[in-house]
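Quick note —
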Amino acid sequence: MGSIQVEFKNPATTTLLELARSLRTYYDLKAESPISDDAIEAIVQDSVLHVPSSFNTHTSRVVLLLKEEHKKAWDIAINAMEGLLAAGQVPEEMFETQAKPKLNGLRAAYGTVLFFVDYDSLAPIKEKFSIYADKFDPFAMESNAMAQYLVWVALEAEGFGANLQHYSLLIDKQIQKTWSLPTSWKLDAQLVFGVSTTDSGEKAFTPLEGSFKVFGKSL
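Predicted structure written out below.
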């Protein structure tokens, strides 16, 4: 099942889908930017502001780290991994051949967007709509994921390469301490970006036949 060739009413729809098709994960990044820091900030702000959230709860919290501040985040991750190595929880060979090179590569980029969810802010809505109380945390994660995706797409459209990381359990406490963030902010993901030094590879796809169905289509 391939893409259907159609003409959309709004040309922006074609552009949006083209950006989705071109999105790739880039790991070989350098500390350069094709746009101003103000433009990067505008992308992150607009994405967080305009992404929808369940019951308009707006639980996403975001921190943008650039240049030396970005490096601090990955120094924290490197130090955390070194602690695991010293404690015998990570094999030395894996640390030297896999973990350390990867973390140094992330550190070499231009910036990181830290994505958090403030679950404590959901207390009033959980009380008001108790029947949905156990659903609001997953709903908050869904909204946060949409923000992650939108920032990623927009940064790549502006000439960046990026990759999404999940080192939260290793670095969250030190991240909060370093930038004096509220303890209610729970770190979920880290979007690392910079100018890519490699070409994009081909995307691999799972066939849609087993995961997509349509009913009621006009012929």
